[in-house]
Each structure stands twice: as structure tokens, then as C-alpha cells.
Amino acid sequence: MCHFSNPIPGGPLETIEQNVTGLFISEPFNKIEMAKTIMQFVKNEELSKKLGKNGPAHVERLFSFTAFATKLDEIITKLF
Predict the structure, then answer these.
(1) Cβ pair 23, 43 in contact under 8 A
(2) Which of 20, 22, 29, 42 makes an SS bond possible with 1, Cβ 3.0 to 4.6 Å?
(3) Alpha-helical segments (H) within the chain
(4) What is the C-alpha to C-alpha distance for residues 68 and 35, in angstroms, rounded to an integer?
């Protein structure tokens, strides 16, 4: 999974951990940087498998309905 770096909170910055769950492309309009990042993913089978395994587990842990419900329950419990 490759994503462009983004200074705005949310999206890829919350879902991607560099070299753990995906790859950031630090200069999204730089074709050379984009190609290098994509080739890193394509040429490194071990990295590709690691990202493929870690990415979905990370998203499930942080953004699933269960994760949302747990966080909401924590917030409501603190209020009452």
C-alpha cells in the first residue's frame, strides 16, 4: 500500500506506519520519488508480504466497528 505524504490530519497519516503497514511517497508530484517508492515495494517481496499482512490487521484494530464501539463506550463512561 503506497500513499502520498499529506500534511492534513487524517487519512493516510493515521492509517499508514512507514515500512510497517505501507509506504509514504514523500513528494507526490515528483515522478522519480514515486517510481522509487513503488519499485521498493515491487522488488522487496519480504516487505510486500509484511505490508500485506500488517495493513489489514492495523486497519481492523483501529477502525473496525468493534474499535469504534469500544472507544465510544470509553468516552461515554467518562462522561457519566
Answers:
(1) no
(2) 22
(3) 12-15, 31-43, 45-63, 65-79
(4) 36
Q: What is the pLDDT along the chain (80 residues), one digit of tens a residue?
A: 554 444 445 556 777 888 899 888 877 788 999 999 889 989 999 999 999 999 899 988 888 999 999 999 999 999 98
Please report, for residues 1, 6, 56, the alpha-carbon distance to residue 45 in angstroms, rounded to integers and kept in the order given: 13, 26, 17
Q: Which residues contact 38 (CB under 8 A, 6 or more apart)?
A: 2
Distance between CA atoms of residues 45 and 40, nearest Å: 9
